[in-house]
Specification:
Layout: H1 2-10, H2 15-23, H3 38-44, H4 54-63, H5 77-87, E1 106-108, E2 116-120, E3 129-137, E4 143-150, E5 153-159, E6 164-169
Antiparallel strand pairs: 1-6, 2-3, 2-6, 3-4, 4-5
Helix pairs in contact: 3-5, 4-5
């Protein structure tokens, strides 16, 4: 519950919070080896945003062959997950669309921290989606994820359980 309250505090308006977001810098990357998980790579990028770290976001976009695109005008959640997987030596989809992750790894019903989560956007039948890494469930069953392009940055965010398309384990 403390974690959920911390997440909620991130979205509470305050001048200190806004100042911290303006000066946020990516954490140091973990040592590159087979032991580093995609979730740990994602965690190392916490705070990267498209406004103050466009070169870093372009690095994610290069994995899905969109490195010349403006990250402020390009959805990059799938590029971020692909990048994290690649850093761990795991094959991703190589595609820039979130729903492509519905065909990666194995489907699981009970997620563990670090599993891939795919959500629908606009409508369940739309091609649009969002992809991130599972962190935990709230007491109401909503899903806390760590991902990219969430409020234009790498951060934790809570999504309604009704938007879930699937959990995948790689």
């Amino acid at each position: 519950m403390k974690f959920i309250n911390w997440i909620k505090s991130l979205f509470a308006p305050s001048s200190e919070g806004a100042k911290a977001q303006e000066t946020a810098k990516p954490c140091a990357s973990p040592k590159s080896n087979a032991q580093t998980t995609p979730y740990e790579w994602a965690l190392s990028q916490l705070g990267v945003n498209e406004r103050t770290h466009p070169a870093t976001v372009k690095k994610y976009l290069q994995v899905v062959r969109l490195g010349n695109y403006d990250p402020r005008e390009t959805a990059w959640c799938a590029a971020f997950v692909n990048w994290c997987l690649a850093q761990s030596g795991i094959q991703g989809t190589g595609k820039p669309n979130a729903r492509s992750f519905l065909h990666v790894g194995d489907e699981v019903k009970v997620p563990q921290k670090g599993d891939i989560v795919v959500f629908w956007r606009s409508s369940k039948k739309s091609w649009k989606g969002h992809v991130a890494f599972f962190n935990e469930l709230t007491s109401s069953g909503d899903i806390v994820v760590l991902g990219g392009n969430q409020n234009n940055e790498v951060c934790y965010k809570i999504y309604p359980k009704e938007r879930l398309l699937g959990y995948r384990r790689v």
